[in-house]
Specification:
Strand order of the largest sheet: 2-1-3
Order of helices and strands: EHHHHEHHHHHEH
Distance between the termini: 24 Å
Structural class: mainly alpha
Oligomer: single chain
């Protein structure tokens, strides 16, 4: 759930990815469903995610993510433009490029390539385990609960090749940059509510626990400048 009022938007994406997101939106307008069809035919975890979500009585799925687009448009058009922060470093960042390289090395290790054979079985297992963590809600439909289990399975598969070291390093960098974005937001002139400005950071539900722990432990601040 997001706060009703916020003053800046931070996305766990690079600046280049945010540009690509807008390009995908334009492509989908000219050729509706082109990205959905591509994902379904890809045989990847994204295709499995789209397939399972399509079977549920929910709004979506859609590519690109309409919620991210909506938040971007809201930030761009409200109050003369609210700052938008790209939390993931760009590929021109040496430390991040090294992290990406080590992640790629893990993805092509024999044991991880072999593990793709059992992807469907693991997907079903993670969904069953996630069902036990879903609570009944008066404001959310059972299909939304089912959607959260699909997303949990997708996140598990996407994270399979990440070692504990890589996860800690990624979340620590993100946490440092989130703190830096908030610091930049505070330094801007604004009619902030009591307690200071609110930075909205949308996060995949399954990613929340590890990122939250990293934020609590984080002591460094990497300043990130917002775009408007």
């Amino acid at each position: 759930m997001r706060p009703r009022e916020w003053d800046g938007l931070a996305l766990l994406s690079s600046a280049d990815e945010l540009v690509s997101l807008k390009e995908e939106e334009d492509q989908d307008k000219s050729s509706p469903g082109i990205h959905m069809e591509s994902a379904l035919a890809s045989g990847t975890t994204l295709g499995m995610l789209v397939r399972d979500l399509s079977e549920l009585d929910i709004e979506g799925p859609s590519i690109p993510d309409p919620e991210r687009i909506r938040l971007l448009r809201h930030a761009e058009n409200s109050r003369g433009g609210m700052p938008i922060y790209a939390i993931e470093p760009g590929i021109d960042d040496p430390k991040w490029a090294d992290w990406q390289s080590r992640w790629a090395d893990e993805q092509v290790r024999f044991r991880n390539l072999l593990a793709t054979i059992g992807r469907s079985r693991r997907w079903s297992k993670v969904r069953r385990e996630a069902i036990q963590k879903v609570s009944l809600s008066k404001i959310a439909s059972p299909d939304l609960g089912a959607a959260s289990t699909v997303c949990a399975a997708w996140w598990s598969e996407e994270s399979m090749c990440l070692t504990d070291e890589l996860v800690i390093e990624r979340d620590s960098r993100f946490s440092s940059r989130i703190r830096g974005a908030l610091s930049d937001l505070r330094d801007r002139d604004g009619d902030w509510a009591e307690g200071g400005p609110t930075l909205l950071v949308p996060v995949q539900q399954a990613h929340v626990p590890s990122l939250e722990n990293s934020l609590i432990a984080c002591e460094s601040v990497e300043i990130v400048r917002g775009e408007q």
